[in-house]
Amino acid sequence: MSEQTINNTRRKLLQGLGATGLAAVAAPTLAGTSSKDTQWDKTYDFVIIGSGFAALAAAIEAKKQGIKSVAIFEQMPTFGGNSSINGGLFAVPGSPMQKKEGVKDSVDQMVADQLKSGRGIADEALLRHVAEHANEALQMTFDAGAEYLPYLQQLGGHSAPRTYQTTVACGAGITQPLYKMALSKGVEMNKRCRMSGFIRGKDGAIEGVTIETRYYADRKVSEGETLNVRARTAVLVATGGFSQNIALRMAQDPTLTSDVGCTNIKGATGEAMLEMFRIGAVPVHLAHIQSGPWASPDEGGFGYVSNYSIFNFPHSIAVSRLTGQRFMNEIADRKTRADAELSNRDAEGNPVPPLMITHYHDADKHPNCKKVLKYGVGWKFDTLEDLAKHFDVPLKPLKAQIEEYNRYVDSGVDEQFGKPMGEAKGKHIKAPFMVVRLWPKVHYCQGGVKVNQMAQVEDSLTGKPIKGLLAAGEVAGGIHGVSRLGSCSIPECMVMGITAARTAAAGKA
Amino acid sequence: MSEQTINNTRRKLLQGLGATGLAAVAAPTLAGTSSKDTQWDKTYDFVIIGSGFAALAAAIEAKKQGIKSVAIFEQMPTFGGNSSINGGLFAVPGSPMQKKEGVKDSVDQMVADQLKSGRGIADEALLRHVAEHANEALQMTFDAGAEYLPYLQQLGGHSAPRTYQTTVACGAGITQPLYKMALSKGVEMNKRCRMSGFIRGKDGAIEGVTIETRYYADRKVSEGETLNVRARTAVLVATGGFSQNIALRMAQDPTLTSDVGCTNIKGATGEAMLEMFRIGAVPVHLAHIQSGPWASPDEGGFGYVSNYSIFNFPHSIAVSRLTGQRFMNEIADRKTRADAELSNRDAEGNPVPPLMITHYHDADKHPNCKKVLKYGVGWKFDTLEDLAKHFDVPLKPLKAQIEEYNRYVDSGVDEQFGKPMGEAKGKHIKAPFMVVRLWPKVHYCQGGVKVNQMAQVEDSLTGKPIKGLLAAGEVAGGIHGVSRLGSCSIPECMVMGITAARTAAAGKA
Question: Which fold has domain A294-439?
Answer without folding.
Answer: Flavocytochrome C3; Chain A, domain 1 (3.90.700)
